[in-house]
Write a structure and sequence with these properties.
Strand order of the largest sheet: 22-23-1-24
Radius of gyration: 21 Å
Number of helices: 12
Strand content: 25-35%
Number of domains: 2
CATH topology of the largest domain: UDP-n-acetylglucosamine1-carboxyvinyl-transferase, Chain
Distance between the termini: 13 Å
Largest sheet: 4 strands, mixed
Helix content: 25-40%
Shape: globular
Amino acid sequence: MSGALRVRSADRPLTGTTTVPGDKSLGHRALLLSALADGSSTIRGFPGGADVRATLGAMRALGASIDWDGGDTVRVEGRGLELGVGVDATLDCANSGTTMRLAAGLVAAVPGRRKLDGDASLRRRPMERVAEPLRRMGARIDTTAGRAPLTIDGAALVGVACTLEVASAQVKSALLLAGLRAKGTTRVVEPLATRDHTERMLRHMGVPVVVEDLAVAVTGGHRLAPLDVTLPGDPSSAAFLVVAALLVPGSRLRVTGVGTNPRRTGALEILRRMGARITIEDATDEAGEPCGAVVVEHAPLHGTTIAPDEIPGAIDELPILAVAAAFAEGETRVTGAAELRVKESDRIAALEQLGPLGVAFEPTRDGFVVRGRPDTTITGGTIATHGDHRIAMAFAVAGLRSLEGVTIDEPRCADVSFPRFFDRLGALGARVDTPEGT
């Protein structure tokens, strides 16, 4: 797929059973922890997007042997707690903030010098939020004016008790990874509950993890057992298909094998509050992670208020929730989401492009307000994604309710988290084509 793509108003319901790529957050952690484990791990359902490929490359650079032929199965020969010892390397994190922040914790206690770098977008994202608490443990980290590139010289670390100022699963995970090779106990306290994938996977691999309310702790020196896991489908990716079905009359979709970890399904709960008909069927468990089939039917929506304490559980889905709000009755207000300003793009600024399409969208310092109408049919136009996968997919879904179609300038950026997203949308019944003149 190359060049721009246009998504036009759907002329029939979106129906059928489908899947989404494996969970990107779990994919990162499975690679990192398998590389740190003793023995051979097998990871099935590997998402294969650009972000997790960056983590795969970084673990190879640190000495893990990884067998991947581009399919959905990865085999990792871990190096144990000796991973990366004495290895001087540059880790190319591409566009992946998760790779950079988690890898910073992984290598902080390991002898050797590592440089962590990425693309222009990643170089704009704040990195002192992870560097500063790691320094409290004894890490030697230099940032570039608070951003990437990072230079990390391995040092002996000591566990600390750290209270985070910003709720961040990435920073929490970085500290836990550092704590695995630190002396003593590392305890992290969050201001709000964030994704707990790292804690769950560590437990599955035999590491004692102590969780008390918003605090989580590990003690250094524990060896990790290898993984044999099938990753659930990514709930953040599923949210785009869920909203697509909600917006197109007569639609009914079943998305199988989706992760339903309660700290990842905040968007589904918000959509239910807006009137969505969403059910979970065939519930099961995979390596401590709940999963099931998400079934959604078209339904009229109404506006809601998304409060700050809901943001960590729905941060990646806020762009598609803004699109859902555009076609809901009444006002939807989001607060406490300043983190959107420092994602792959300034997502609040990017969502302002809803305005020229005919949506009443008002940006705020830490969120936005959408005044929706259920009978809205937006005009259409060309959207600048700024290389942001979630902006590309959100506006593509908006195109399903447009008069002239919504053209996405960089559709390939969706491959970061959802390879072949536009093909999947078309297979379900959406009209996706190449606009004239491109």
